[in-house]
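Readers outside the structure-tokenisation community will struggle with the description of the input data as it stands. Showing the layout once, in full, would remove most of the difficulty. For illustration, here is how one protein appears when written out as sequence plus structure tokens:
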Amino acid sequence: MTRRSVLEALLASGVALRSAASRSRGPRIGVTDWNLELTGKIEAVALAARLGFDGVQVSLGRKPASDKLPLDDASIQAQYLAAAKQHGIDLCGTCLDILHVDHLKDNQRAQKWVADSIPITAKLQSGVVLLPFFGKAGLANHAEMDYVAGVLKELAPAAEKAGVTLGLEDTISAEDNVRIMERAGSPAVKVYYDVGNSTANGFNVVKEIRWLGAQRICQMHLKDNPHYLGEGPIDFPAVMKAITDIGFAGFANLETDCPSRSVDNDMTRNLKFIRALLA
């Protein structure tokens, strides 16, 4: 090779590396199985992959059998893992949706479900379990927040050992979420930040995302329901810029409605919009 051809090859490889780095900048984009209208169904894995998502968030189920969560079954877990491998997609997180029924802030049975969700999430190689606090399960005052923090402090060592993060998704401020995290005293307790929920509750999501930083956010939900992304009140260009600016590289999962009632069309439309912002 001539000196010129060597230089050209090096320049080309540098451009390729920069291009790859640019493509990898920012979060990976997943989707919730419930918004695919396949809650707790293995078929969600194939659909998420076909639509072009990087991962799918899996519901653990609201109807226990024999005092066990629906996904507390080794054969079902094996099916999920096989489907993820077959379709080349991550099981990017789980959702402990039974907490909509048994509330962690005032129900000791809920503590069992959190404890049980940790090994399930680890076996699914998902890394993050979402703990929801909405409606009657919502955190209304500091006493309830402190109680939840105490429960999580007891459960967090098992999560740390399993390599699982317990993600707080709720309707309270970023500051109050951090208060819970600090009282729990564990790196296994983080914020599961939902831009739609926070906007609906009057918080400045761009400001909160930047204040929290990447280290305190485990995953995110992106939505502006009932609108398509980019057509509602949330400034998604500013949101996605904040997410990339803080260096968040985890999963941001679409939890978007389907206004046209076509999951394929509406999810593809929202995913294309987010990918264009990241590009």
Notes: Confidence is low (pLDDT under 50) at residues 1-24. The chain has ten helices and eight strands. The two ends are 35 Å apart (CA to CA).
